[in-house]
Amino acid sequence: MVHIRGLILEGYSHAGKTSVLKALKLLQAQDESSERSIIVLSEHYSQLLNNVHGEFKCLNRDEHLHVLKERVDMLKQLNGWATYLGPDASKGSRGIFFILERFHLNHRVAFPAESLYEIEKIENDLLLLGAKCALLTVSPENIEQRMQTRTPHEWKNKTKNEIRKSADEFLHTQSELRKQSSLSILPTIEINTDNKDWAAYAKELMDLLI
To answer: Could you give the percent of the chain with pLDDT greater than 70?
Structure first.
């Protein structure tokens, strides 16, 4: 028996993952019948590039797969414990709700030419845990403004060419995420976040899990 369900938030930087994550936590907390056991892991627990003691380190393919597998194994163990305790409990008391950020699609885009066996196994485990994926996107014509509005101090001294190059990288990675989402076994919904209506996006995603 599965006592667990969850969402995976994917998307390039500035697409709105953190804002949607916050809205999801708030919405879930307002539902009195929802799970009281909640696991929320931001991208710092699953991304490739990490700040390690003040130095940036990028995980290689095997290292990243190990990190993702550890996170999924943790969820499997918790669901296994809930199953062991038996079915006689409400969703609120026994259920588990999780949110992951920058997970399987991030890996697929980073290593598109490598074997898919390991990441597909991780995706299958996530599917069995009731996971669904949301790919957050921004319209091409709004990318430059979104990047500069989010962190204006980082862009103040950049040239137009530098800004354009960053926007092109955003658009390319977003396209690759969309492509990889179509190849994944996990059900994925794409949400355009141009309107920044985080509460509405959160509700749409929670309805997806019903």
So the answer is: 98
